[in-house]
Amino acid sequence: VRGQHFPPLRALQASAALRRASDEHKKEPLTSSSQHHFDPPPAGHQPEQEPQGPRPSYTGHGGQESEDYESEEQLQHRILTAALEFVPEHGWTAEAIAEGAKTLGLSVAAAGMFHSDGSELILHFVSECNAKLSELLEKEQKLVQLGEAEKKPMDEFLRQAVEARLRMLIPYIEKWPQALSVLLLPRNIPSSLNLLTSMIDDIWHYAGDQSTDFNWYTRRAVLTGIYNTTELVMMQDSSPDFEDTWRFLENRVADAMAMSNTASQVQSTGEAVVQGLMGAAVTVSNAETSWVLR
Amino acid sequence: VRLWWCRCWALLSRPAWRLRARRGLAAGPEMHFGFQTVTEEERREKIYQVFESVAKKYDVMNDSMTLGIHRVWKDILMHKMNPSPGTLLLDVAGGTGDIAFRFINYVRSVRERQLQRKLKHHQNLSWQEIFESYQKDKFNSLGDSQVVVCDINREMLKVGKQKAQHLGYSEGLSWVLGNAEELPFDNDKFDVYTIAFGIRNVTRIDLALQEAYRVLKPGGRFLCLEFSHVSNPLLSRLYDLYSFQVIPVLGEVIAGDWKSYQYLVESIRRFPPQEELKAMIEDVGFFKVDYENLNFGIVAIHSGFKL
């Protein structure tokens, strides 16, 4: 992590010009008279390098991507999204990112902004998938609330959510093992773990989990286990449309449900055993006292 | 020999920071030439003469002064660049071609790996198709990558061309005489611009940076490898000692040129430190400007993107 702070909201000249050129036939040209600047650019910065068109104008609302303005992060996002197309061919590498940058009209050297092992590309992909999953689950929940769909039983819901999420890997399945190994690099573990836990959290949230006790942890641990093992099974599954994987998933979810029943059974058995022991202890102590008193 | 020893002794007995500044002649803004003060024009001329005289022994001196570590620095620069085949590189002040040759080697090996991977995917194509694609790729061992070496000094370029011939580099290489402050290239041409151990000798660094911005394509990368400032005080003392006592002596012994190497170590001290150079690069319009210290700050690689 570098100890630099980005100069706030300097317009990206070169890439902005490229996007303008490509969007010209889509949007009407903007007048540069309406310029509400979020932050005035450093004085003397503009006149020096203006080989491309007029200064970009934008409405000053947050870091939102309005007409011509975008931040470095947004540009990086666009490059990574464009790079995903080339992953099946090049893998999760700087080469794929370079190809992605090329499609946006940038130089291949722009891939130098990212790590050469493709970590950022993979993390970007994972967070995009998670976002898509959340959207899906949200839509379904709305349908249920509007009464247009029936509420699914818990195991069915979990199974479908995990399957939907894993299906997003299918276009990249060949190179996914490589991605998994990169995600396990010490450098990436905090971020990848973060993404994983927030995804599992999401699924439980939409499943209607409102526990506030220890169950919260067990539920997440169980679902994380199911997800990870299913993912690994998927890696070496060669059946048509990954049937074996989905069957494996179904079994694991069924196991988990059964285990939770067993758990509550174990708990009541445990309570019964404890009561028995207490009773025995009381009896023994009574016997002792009465023996002493005799 | 006795004269040489006298000079040696004279310099050793005076601590470097007591070297007097000499007033420059005539008009023109005053600049530094090592620890001297001269006009802009004089500076350009003096630097030209310095490199004219060291050109033939440049590589030998690099090896002896840095004990061969400069090769590692340049390799690290190349790894940081991580060029893919098809990259167009402009190496400014690239005189004897060190960076250019490394670039060609790197791209060649990346290209080979690419071709191998392609062949693996060709398992289920017909023989005709495989043959055709092989033909197409065989004569493209660099994958359309090219490097243009630009230097202001004719002698350095001459040495570079001779080296290229000697080492067998011919493809994808061009040599251009040009001034970093006023490059003879069009806008938006290059993918990567490098300047290794050269920006220190540029008289107007801001102009060179502006030119770099101009000739780079959108998304292009600026890389600068240069001597910089050591912040660790103990190391700094040792480094100073080595620089001022050993290097000029090596210069005299190996290249027969004390003054040039005196200039070299002085110019290192006069060059702006890491943060200042970073600010200058940002001012010109580069984004994601960052630097990496090598060997505790003896050398630093600055990187920026034209976004």
Automatic annotation (TrEMBL), chain A:
Residues 20-29 have a biased composition (Basic and acidic residues). GO terms for cellular component: mitochondrial inner membrane. The keyword Transit peptide applies. Residues 1-74 are annotated as: Disordered. GO terms for molecular function: lipid binding. Pathway: Cofactor biosynthesis; ubiquinone biosynthesis. GO terms for biological process: ubiquinone biosynthetic process. Its main location: mitochondrion. Residues 189-259 form the COQ9 C-terminal domain. It is found in: Mitochondrion. Residues 9-19 have a biased composition (Low complexity). Keywords: Lipid-binding, Mitochondrion, Transit peptide, Ubiquinone biosynthesis. The keyword Translocase does not apply. InterPro entries: COQ9_C (IPR013718), COQ9_HTH (IPR048674), Ubiq_biosynth_COQ9 (IPR012762). Residues 72-102 form the Ubiquinone biosynthesis protein COQ9 HTH domain. It comes from the Eukaryota. Belongs to the COQ9 family. PANTHER family: UBIQUINONE BIOSYNTHESIS PROTEIN COQ9, MITOCHONDRIAL (PTHR21427). Homodimer. Heterodimer; two heterodimers of COQ7:COQ9 come together on the same side of the lipid pseudo-bilayer and form a curved tetramer with a hydrophobic surface suitable for membrane interaction. These two tetramers assemble into a soluble octamer with a pseudo-bilayer of lipids captured within. Interacts with COQ7; this interaction allows ubiquinone (CoQ) isoprene intermediates presentation to COQ7 and facilitates the COQ7-mediated hydroxylase step. Membrane-associated protein that warps the membrane surface to access and bind aromatic isoprenes with high specificity, including ubiquinone (CoQ) isoprene intermediates and presents them directly to Coq7, therefore facilitating the Coq7-mediated hydroxylase step. Participates in the biosynthesis of coenzyme Q, also named ubiquinone, an essential lipid-soluble electron transporter for aerobic cellular respiration. This is Ubiquinone biosynthesis protein. The gene is Coq9.
TrEMBL record, chain B:
Keywords: Methyltransferase, S-adenosyl-L-methionine, Signal, Transferase, Ubiquinone biosynthesis. GO terms for molecular function: 2-methoxy-6-polyprenyl-1,4-benzoquinol methyltransferase activity. It holds the Pfam family Ubie_methyltran. Residues 1-21 form the signal peptide. GO terms for biological process: methylation. Gene3D superfamilies: Vaccinia Virus protein VP39. The keyword Transferase applies. InterPro entries: SAM-dependent_MTases_sf (IPR029063), UbiE/COQ5_MeTrFase (IPR004033), UbiE/COQ5_MeTrFase_CS (IPR023576). Methyltransferase required for the conversion of 2-decaprenyl-6-methoxy-1,4-benzoquinol (DDMQH2) to 2-decaprenyl-3-methyl-6-methoxy-1,4-benzoquinol (DMQH2). Component of a multi-subunit COQ enzyme complex, composed of at least COQ3, COQ4, COQ5, COQ6, COQ7 and COQ9. Interacts with PYURF; the interaction is direct, stabilizes COQ5 protein and associates PYURF with COQ enzyme complex. This is COQ5 protein. It comes from Chaetorhynchus papuensis (pygmy drongo).
